[in-house]
Fold this sequence. Notes:
By secondary structure, the protein is of the alpha+beta class. It is built from 5 helices and 13 strands.
Amino acid sequence: xxxxxxxxxxxxxxxxxxxxxxxxxxxxxxxxxxxxxxxxxxxxxxxxxxxxxxxxxxxxxxxxxxxxxxxxxxxxxxxxxxxxxxxxxxxxxxxxxxxxxxxxxxxxxxxxxxxxxxxxxxxxxxxxxxxxxxxxxxxxxxxxxxxxxxxxxxxxxxxxxxxxxxxxxxxxxxxxxxxxxxxxxxxxxxxxxxxxxxxxxxxxxxxxxxxxxxxxxxxxxxxxxxxxxxxxxxxxxxxxxxxxxxxxxxxxxxxxxxxxxxxxxxxxxxxxxxxxxxxxxxxxxxxxxxxxxxxxxxxxxxxxxxxxxxxxxxxxxxxxx
Length: 321
């Protein structure tokens, strides 16, 4: 009886769902980036776990309905590594870990036509002397416990890079425009473009740039809680004097009721490879894997309670609120 009633409640919830293609609800995002993706890397003739090799991205994004602004907290840790030619062991590596902490406020509510802007304050922490809880530690234990058992040549020994830890505070400003270019039936094409400026305590991390994104979205005719997105993105950043950074990125995103998942292929076009603070960088293709979990279950249950006529559905919704 319990499972029957629970099933009825879930059916009520699903029937009252609106199409949820764009991520405009409060959410938690987890993204993994790596330059080695097994057989995929072999097909593209890239990926060696050297250079920009591993990254872990976590964010909490809040879209309060009664406020004009959104709030985001982001943490990203990236490992850069190279072979240590000063030792006889061919598996020895030297590494740099860049940790980026950011708090951001913006007004982007993903309307059909809207100007948006954002202000972010952040702190970069760079170290190369220890196995951390960030990207270096993740890479180390991932290889030790899993990868080495599949690829015997992926056994690494991490050596101290003998650099001092240091911090780079920064301020980031963005201004952009989002527009639905085409919409017919269950298909639409969305464009988002912005210019940005980063001011940092170290000139090597200061720059001005631009980003463009195209999102081709397909809604499922039968199950409207599902959408499919094909995304294309281009990015360019420079501080004019020292470096230019540019990339193209292709992505596929699947949106379900309570989460989205995506895969992105990132091809660097240009990098400042001689940055004295971020050594061991390279130009290899990067693979991004991500999950987005929506924080809107309470609103979903409330909506179901108000609209579902079955008393058993209301009873269980009340019990969960």
